[in-house]
Amino acid sequence: MTKVLVATEADWSRARLRDILEELGCEVIEAGDGQEALDLAVAKKPALIVLSQRLPLIDGLSLAVLLKGAAETKNIPVLAICDLDLKTRNQARAAGCDQCLALSLDRAEILAQLRKFLISLERRPR
């Protein structure tokens, strides 16, 4: 079972992502702020981190920089919840995020994107 850390400031978005990820067979760990997400990433070593850019305490892009700069978390893929515009996506990539996901998409599209990303994780050499 793939362990995924979901870090968003909004209960509804965590619930939406949890439901989709559990449908895909993932174990979901949840955080409501950037500091909690950082602590859980170090302690739980998830296979994937999905984070919002608007996290309190440590914003999502700063969190991505911290995660990618730390030896114990640098190899964990980070998927950022982004708007669809190119500027936001470029900022996320510059911070070290591996890919962007738009929660504004319908459920089927989010499910398809997450499924595709999880399949690519399984194919990565360890």
Task: Quickly count the domains.
Answer: 1
Distance between the termini: 16 Å
User: Within the CATH hierarchy, at the fold level, what is the topology?
Assistant: Rossmann fold
Enumerate the strands of the largest sheet in spatial order, edge to edge or round the barrel.
2-1-3-4-5
Give the overall form: globular
Point out poorly predicted stretches.
none
Outline of this structure?
One of its GO terms (biological process) is phosphorelay signal transduction system. The chain is α/β, with parallel strands linked by helices and 126 residues long. The chain contains five helices and five strands, in the order βαβαβαβαβα.
Tell me what you see in this structure.
The chain has one domain: Rossmann fold. 48% of the residues lie in helices and 17% in strands. It is built from 5 helices and 5 strands. The protein has helices at 11-23, 34-44, 60-69, 86-94, 107-123, and strands spanning 3-7, 27-31, 48-52, 78-81, 99-101. A 5-stranded parallel β-sheet has the order 2-1-3-4-5, sandwiched between helices. The chain is globular, with a radius of gyration of 13 Å. The two termini are 16 Å apart.
Main attributes of the structure:
17% strand, alpha/beta, 126 residues, Rossmann fold, Bact_response_regulator, single chain, 5 strands, five-stranded parallel beta sheet
How are the SSEs ordered, and which strands pair?
Elements: E1 3-7, H1 11-23, E2 27-31, H2 34-44, E3 48-52, H3 60-69, E4 78-81, H4 86-94, E5 99-101, H5 107-123
Parallel strand pairs: 1-2, 1-3, 3-4, 4-5
